[in-house]
Amino acid sequence: MTRHAESSHVPSSGRRRAARPARLCVFISGAGRTLINLHEAIEIGDLDATIELVVASGPCPGVERARSAGLRVVIEDAPSDPSRIKNLLGQHRIDWIVLAGYRRLLPIPPGFECRTVNIHPALLPDFGGHGMYGRRVHQAVIDAGRVVSGCTVHHCDDQYDHGKVVLQLTCPVLPGDTPDTLADRVYALECRAYPLALQGLITAWQARGASPAGPPPTGSLP
Asked: Rounded to 5 degrees, what are φ and ψ at 98?
């Protein structure tokens, strides 16, 4: 009876160990709202990840919000050396780089070309590029007479707001919208889109071989 009770209808060869959560490094420059949204998604189980490190481009409200949430924070004023960034990521065994309101052009470390993502508050390729962030984006959308806006989650490369699109969500631009009212509507989309897109990417990455005992992707640590 004991042997039967311990048996399973699933053959042992068919059992799958749960893949480990993805270890994230989140880069910020501003208020940290997107960071906290991701942190909350992790807390409620919507995102199979841990935030191992927050890198801020300088002192900003997001630093205190991150520390209040119990997250480890470092300040890197202007990271321009990919090897330095890679070493920092290696020290914390980071799997994915996540940009969350980061206003600098991050040099993508070798090995992270397909594991660095960003979210932008417009429908790329329109209304992106250097200097296009915050209210400027929404003002540009309104000035262009667009009737639809939204947000874009995309892979990153060596250009601002450029790279393969992962997910876009849309919302209407309403008559009488101001940059602030449109920003609120788009941000509500961002709160859905980023955890959703990241979870899809992480699930696919886990299926390709991320394992509980897997080595750090940077190869910096044993």
From this structure: -125, 115
For residues 170 and 141, is the Cβ–Cβ distance under 8 A?
Answer: no
Distance CA 60, CA 1 (A): 62
Residue recorded with tokens 């699109």: 165
DSSP of 111-149, one letter per residue? Answer: T-TTSEEEEESS-TTTT-STT--THHHHHHHHHTT-SEE
pLDDT at 11 over 70: no
| Three-state SS at 98 | strand
Positions annotated as catalytic residues are: 120
pLDDT band of residue 58 (cuts 50, 70, 90) is: confident
- Domain span at residue 92 reads 21-207
Quote the pLDDT of residue 117: 98
Any idea what the CATH number is for the domain that residue 147 is in? 3.40.50.170
The answer as to whether 64 is a domain residue is yes
Look at residue 31 and tell me if it is in a domain.
yes
- In this structure, are residues 66 and 100 in contact, taking their beta carbons and an 8 Å threshold? no
Residue 79, exposed/middle/buried by CB under 10 A (0-12, 13-18, 19+)?
A: middle
Q: What is the pTM of this model?
A: 0.84
- In tens, the pLDDT along 161-190 reads 999 999 999 999 999 999 999 999 999 999
∠ CA(219), CA(28), CA(203), 5° rounding? 50
176 conformational bin, left if phi > 0, alpha if psi -120 to 50, beta if neither: left
Alpha carbon distance, N-terminus to C-terminus of the chain: 44
What is the token pair recorded at 213? 């005992």
Domain count, the chain: 1
